[in-house]
Amino acid sequence: MISRRTLILPIDPNGPEPGGVRQAADVLRSGWLVAFPTETVYGLGANALDPDAVSRIFEAKGRPATNPLIVHVCDESMLSQVVADWPAVAAKLISRFWPGPLTLVLPKNPAIPDIVTGGGPTVAVRMPAHPVALALIRESRMPLAAPSANRSSELSPTTAEHVWKGLEGRIDLILDAGPTQSGIESTVLDLTTHPPTLLRPGPIGVAEIEARIGPIQRKRDTPRTGPLPSPGMLERHYAPNTPLELFADRAVLEERASALVASGQTVKKVLLGGIDHSASVMPTHHDQYAARLFAELHDLDSLWLNRILIEMPPETDDWLAVRDRLTRAATEGS
Ligand code: AMP
Ligand code: MG
């Protein structure tokens, strides 16, 4: 790929400056790529209606063409350009959870090019709850296809620096509004099955969704409770370059600690050559843990440890999304 000059533009997360938003919208309207903050992670956006622009996302990320993208909208009239139509169950979820980190899979509108959906008849769509993301979609007047702004299978970006580390020279502009809030990717729910299927656990939990629409089913490889799924069952994703191992038994640390990010107790310890390099604290609440997870992994990855050891979080439903990211990050091979 031809190296491009990547510009970082600081922007106010609460009241984005109109000049900056306009500049980013111009880049998008010209068919180029802009990384922008959402409430989950930074997204890499392109005009979802332009197949050439969308192909640049796949090229910049090194993403397999079979992996479909999430389309971001700013209101219901834009939603109607993206999906063929939406059932009552979608309307119920939208009125409760949008804008917010819940992605819905619905039958696609013919206006959405095949490259966005991996050739399939459905499209994943959400309305992000971030003033910068909403202002950008509104100003560019088009739905934005936006996967996470990282190289494929690597750690998701929760800061503009993370985006820069992975995509500098491959994209045109990064809007820097500081760290993102929830820190893990949106919950993905497929509404084309009956009952609906949870495809990816995320910040909106199963219990919250079921309280609104009744029982949903879970995709088979989503870790729930019990032992870790065997390697290979999960796609490797969200992974640091340093090998990552999950442990349940603290005795493992006596033997070969190199790094530890513990949950369930307020301690994080990084041991490098026997020297304690860090004593910062990991949150014990799952939402706050999730918000910090990728930033911690980016940091640990930059320490050149021979191994990262992370304690498996509790086997309860509220830790489902965190366990999903950790087990994928710990899966060997690609
Ligand atoms: P990312 O853009 O990196 O957050 O990843 C998007 C996620 O949404 C992936 O897990 C995709 O497999 C999923 N996704 C996107 N579109 C669809 C679709 N039409 N059907 C099922 N899953 C989808
Ligand atoms: Mg991603």
Q: Give the strand order, joined by hyphens, for the main sheet.
A: 1-8-2-3-7-4-6-5-9-10-11
Number of strands: 16
Nearest-integer average pLDDT: 87
CATH homology group of the largest domain:
DHBP synthase
* Low confidence ranges: 224-233, 263-267
Specify the biggest β-sheet: 11 strands, mixed
What name does CATH use for the topology of the largest domain? DHBP synthase
Bound small-molecule species: adenosine monophosphate, magnesium ion
Structural domain tally: 2
Tertiary shape = globular
The first-to-last residue Cα distance is 22 Å
Structural class: alpha/beta
The percentage of residues in β strands lies in: 15-25%
State the share of residues found in helices, binned by percent. 25-40%
CATH architecture assignment of the largest domain: Alpha-Beta Complex
Helix count from the secondary structure assignment: 11
CATH class placement of the largest domain = Alpha Beta
Helix-strand pattern: EHEEHEHHEHEHEHEEEHEEHEEEHEH
**How much is the radius of gyration in Å?**
20 Å
